[in-house]
Hints:
This protein is globular. It has a two-stranded parallel sheet with strand order 1-2. The longest helix is centred in the last third of the chain and has 57 residues, at 403-459. It contains 19 helices and two strands. It has helices at 3-10, 23-56, 63-91, 94-113, 117-145, 148-180, 191-205, 211-216, 220-231, 244-254, 259-262, 264-286, 288-295, 306-334, 340-363, 368-384, 386-397, 403-459, 465-469; strands at 14-15, 235-236. Helices cover 80% and strands 1% of the residues. The relative contact order is 0.15. The two termini are 20 Å apart. By secondary structure, it is an all-alpha fold.
Amino acid sequence: xxxxxxxxxxxxxxxxxxxxLRPRHFLVLFxxxxxxxxxxxxxxxxxxxxxxxxxxxxxxxxxxxxxxLGCISLIGLTFGAIVFGRLSDRYGYLLFFRxxxxxxxxxxxxxxxxxxxxxxxxxxxxxxxxxxxEYSLDSNxxxxxxxxxxxxxxxxxxKASAAIGSVIVAGICYHAINRWQSAHPWHDLLFIMTxxxxxxxxLRIHFAQSPGWLLSxxxxxxxxxxxxxxxxxxxxxxxxxxxxRTTTKAASKKESGSFLSRNFKKVIFSGVPWACEGLGVYGIxxxxxTLIMSLGINRLPASASQxxxxxxxxxxxxWLSAIMLIGFVLGLMLxxxxxxxxxxxxxxxxxxxxxxxxxxxYRLHLPDWIAISSFMFFELFLNAGPHLITFILPTQxxxxxxxxxxxxxxxxxxxxxxxxxxxxxPMLLKWGGSTLVLWVSIAVMLAGGVVTAWLGREVLPxxxxxxxxx
Length: 470
């Protein structure tokens, strides 16, 4: 035991890295997780309002414009993840942690009061841009505040809250549309985003700077104050290794070239599978009501009214969103037991099997329960594997000095896949119907599994049994 360790124990301090969980840990987890909730909630909301807009305002809307509506927030998310990731590495996390929900509030309110499609597209872009910032910040806050043994699990719990956001938004939309029995008040649904973002901003007014970012800038005293703000006056940072700061500086001077050239394999490993997962989560997720109607599994005859088809498809969306949550719970149960590369790869492969079962059910006109069960199988393993693990991997493979940039770049590449999926799914439906959508989605899931298995063991070696337990 070092002199620093003895001094810390004598002062009655507890080490943030080894301390037990406290209620304040869960408060930080909840506040940071709201970013994941609003991100998935926004995707769900966009997928619901597109058919409502088509019914109420623009019955002539083309497949291309549906694709633009579906992907514009994801384009914003892609840019937001890169921009906020770099800015947070330079200026700290706190400013942008507050700015992101503020921008969502402004954009959602403006969209509510405007009938212009151009304004709606711009506001959806800004909301997505802000969500991109959330994705590059919330996992960093959680991983820094949690005790070491709980950090990875809690980052996973934050990601699992995305499913809760989807269920909440789909549930509110279902009850609202069912009460209206009309598509015309669709603007009112935008206030769901205003409400969630308002809660986020209120909870973040009394918050502190990232202790990990402060430490990376050499300001240990400020980092100690930040830790004590979050967890209590008796909590302290681990004793500092006198050589660590010198080593870090030397390594920084030794590095040359751009971030991408220094971390090419890490970028591919963390980004490309995330892009493949993005098609399933956002491409299929956003157009889930539309796909449900196209597949004919919303349990209504073709003669039913348009609004009844939308209401029924949103109801099925709620059930599939609930399966997302079950998938996350399954993934969290396996998180400390199974090698993450294996979890992600098998998640992709099993998701592809689920889609293949759905394709067979559709083409062979099998009963609806088989098609819905196949869809649930896909959602279960997509969320137990890729949707959970792609969010966790960047925090494991990048050091704190460049973590904001690394996580932001991985999220941005992931959202490129989501953008492509959200834009092209309406086009694929037009060109080849549900059959073409499912074939393309199966190929993308298989590609994600192959890239994960190919680079995984090199970028993130499998831990020993003792390390996994630790």
